[in-house]
Design a protein that fits this description.
three-stranded antiparallel β-sheet, 179 residues, alpha+beta
Length: 179
């Protein structure tokens, strides 16, 4: 995959990141580890190589310390007829599932409308029943009130009227005499 561009043979130390800088030289920077101060790290040039970079390639330092490059993957790789057939099948399957979901949603909406209508009818019927029972109760109360009034009148007619006794006068409190 990778092809060596320049044989340098740089020995790598642990704790450093080796890379190719803008000028094409091998440089290194200290990696972030525990205990290292935060902020920008100074880059130091290890070997002056001066590699001219071409677009479409990724340049790196390999294990042996040489400069190497690999072609960058751009765009989508076509796998031939098998992948396109799989994609088409997946698209069809997706379309079918969408259609099924849509049908289910429609059915649920219809069912919801029916249940709403049923609930409304039940509420209306219950309201009518409640109104009828209220009317019956008020009629019963009125009838009971009329009967009670009639019985009071009959009792009043049977008993003779009582004479009221004259009201007693209150005595004024006795005044205290001074000595």
């Amino acid at each position: 995959m990778a092809e060596v561009v320049a044989k340098v043979g740089v020995e790598k130390e642990s704790g450093y990141l080796y890379f190719l800088d803008k000028k094409g030289n091998i440089a290194r920077a200290q990696m972030s580890r525990a205990g290292r101060a935060k902020g920008k790290v100074k880059k130091e040039v290890v070997a002056k190589v001066g590699v001219e970079k071409e677009s479409g390639y990724l340049y790196f330092i390999e294990k042996k310390g040489n400069v190497a490059r690999a072609k960058m993957a751009r765009g989508r790789k076509t796998g031939g007829k098998k992948k396109s057939a799989k994609r088409k099948a997946a698209a069809k399957k997706g379309a079918k599932t969408k259609a099924k979901k849509k049908a289910v949603r429609k059915k649920a909406a219809k069912k919801g409308a029916k249940t709403k209508a049923k609930k409304k009818a039940v509420r209306k019927k219950a309201g009518k029943k409640a109104a009828a029972t209220r009317k019956k109760k008020t009629a019963v109360r009125k009838a009971a009130g009329k009967k009670a009034a009639a019985t009071r009148k009959k009792k009043a007619a049977k008993k003779p009227a009582k004479k009221k006794a004259p009201a007693k006068k209150k005595k004024a409190p006795a005044k205290k005499r001074k000595k």
